[in-house]
Specification:
Elements (H helix, E strand, L loop, with lengths): L21 E2 L3 E4 L5 H14 L2 E5 L5 H15 L3 H5 L9 E3 L17 E6 L29 H26 L10 H5 L2 E9 L13 E4 L5 E6 L5 E4 L10 E2 L20 E2 L2 E2 L9 E5 L1 H6 L8 E4 L6 E9 L5 E3 L14 E3 H10 L2 H4 L5 H19 L3
Parallel strand pairs: 1-10, 2-3
Antiparallel strand pairs: 3-13, 4-5, 5-6, 6-15, 7-14, 8-13, 8-15, 9-10, 9-14, 11-12, 16-17
Helix pairs in contact: 1-4, 2-4, 7-9
The structure holds 2-oxoglutaric acid (AKG) and fe (ii) ion.
The site of fe (ii) ion (FE2) has 4 residues, from loops.
């Protein structure tokens, strides 16, 4: 029996053609399990250990995921001049070309070797809400160019949001909050939820020379739901302060495992006693915690540094970034403070975005870099201090 959880040190990915790295032993949450207690325990441990975990049996069919990836590929297969007609607008919706984003400028010589496509929550232009950062209308390829594309992506946007909500309910329980804590209208009732299709062109990464598929970063929102194809590349660094940093692969978790470490085709992988149900069962999502949840939980749950190394093969992934509404006051959760861990920061989700926008971070990069995040957080503290006067 292959047990990815116990598949720790000693396993490497040498046949990826890049520097060998261990495979990370991540927890796996079965969203269909009636045993909520076990799911919450596993999830809590995952959030404390690494801020990364797999989610299986999430309810989105394999067939539909195949359609979403096929449509994504069709878009990226368009000639560059066609894609440039869909270039991202001022609301950061639409196409972002290769090297446009620079997630880790301190360690990258060029930008990320990936192209992307942003799809947010659609709010019509005549709705005053559309004036707020990250709300607005999407950019769509015409039905003539890509039939059914818009419909597929809109459906995935909705279905993936439900998976995120299911995960956020387990997170609420893991933080000793009411199960529906994050479901409130001002939180995930009106979320800032952004789908991002990604295509890595197949450039071989060379970390020592600053070449990455995606540079090291942590996501800045609440949680991110990531779907990937069978090509490995995602790595995490559980301790961002360690020197040297230790990077571990997070391989795609499938009904049939694709990585050499877990390729015993005769047996289905067990992950922390969760059986990935059958060869036709849905592929796992990778979920990771963002900087906002780290703040909200007063540093108890941590966001984790991650990056993507290209192994020379083309790779597709789909990230879904979820944050609460602009009106959400991200103040220390009641269950995350004590005498030894007093509340640290108060941030308006709205301020979070406004500050990023006003500092132009989003003008050069679709999302802020790690170092930008740090600078931004410092700034938010100053601004919030001025506005709320509670320091
Ligand atoms: O493509 C991946 O596997 C990760 C992408 C990612 O980390 C991001 O877009 O924030
Ligand atoms: Fe990320």
């Amino acid at each position: 029996m292959v047990d990815i959880m116990n598949n720790k040190a000693g396993t490497d990915m040498k046949n990826d053609g890049i520097a060998s790295a261990n495979i990370s032993a991540l927890h796996c949450i079965d969203l269909s399990s009636p045993d909520i207690h076990t799911s919450v325990t596993l999830l809590k441990q995952a959030c404390l250990d690494s801020g990364f975990f797999y989610v299986v049996n999430h309810g989105i069919s394999q067939e539909f995921m195949g359609e979403v990836f096929a449509q994504s590929k069709k878009l990226f297969d368009l000639p560059l001049e066609e894609k440039m007609k869909l270039l991202r607008n001022e609301k950061h919706r639409g196409y972002t070309p290769s090297l446009d984003e620079h997630l880790d400028p301190d360690n990258q010589i060029n930008g990320d070797y990936k192209e992307g496509y942003y799809i947010g929550v659609e709010i019509p232009e005549d709705d005053p809400e559309s004036q707020r950062p990250f709300y607005g209308s999407n950019v769509w390829p015409t039905a003539g160019t890509l039939p059914g594309w818009k419909e597929t992506m809109e459906k995935y946007h909705q279905e993936a949001l439900e998976v995120n909500k299911a995960v956020s309910r387990l997170i609420a329980l893991a933080l000793d909050l009411d199960v529906d804590f994050f479901d409130r209208p001002e939180f995930l009732g009106r979320p800032i939820a952004t789908l991002r299709l990604l295509h890595y062109e197949g450039k071989l990464s060379d970390p020592s020379n600053g070449i990455f598929g995606a540079g090291a970063h942590s996501d800045y929102g609440l949680i991110t739901l990531l779907a990937t194809d069978d090509v490995s590349g995602l790595q995490i660094c559980k301790d961002k302060d360690a020197k040297p940093q230790i990077w571990e692969y997070v391989p795609p978790l499938r009904g049939i495992m694709s990585s050499p470490a877990v390729s015993n085709k005769d047996s289905m992988p067990f992950v922390n006693n969760v059986k990935v149900k059958s060869k036709s069962s849905t592929n796992a999502f990778v979920v990771n915690l963002g900087d906002m949840l780290e703040r909200w939980s007063n540093g108890i749950f941590r966001s984790t540094l991650h990056r993507v190394l290209g192994n020379g093969q083309e790779r597709f992934s789909i990230a879904y970034f979820v944050e609460p509404s602009h009106d959400c006051l991200v103040e220390c959760l009641p269950t995350c403070q004590s005498k030894v861990n007093p509340p640290r920061q108060v941030i308006y989700s709205y301020m979070w975005h406004k500050t990023k926008l006003s500092f132009g971070i989003l003008q050069s990069n679709a999302r802020p870099t790690c170092s930008s995040v740090t600078k931004t957080l410092m700034l938010i503290e100053i601004l919030t201090n001025e506005i709320l006067g509670n320091w």
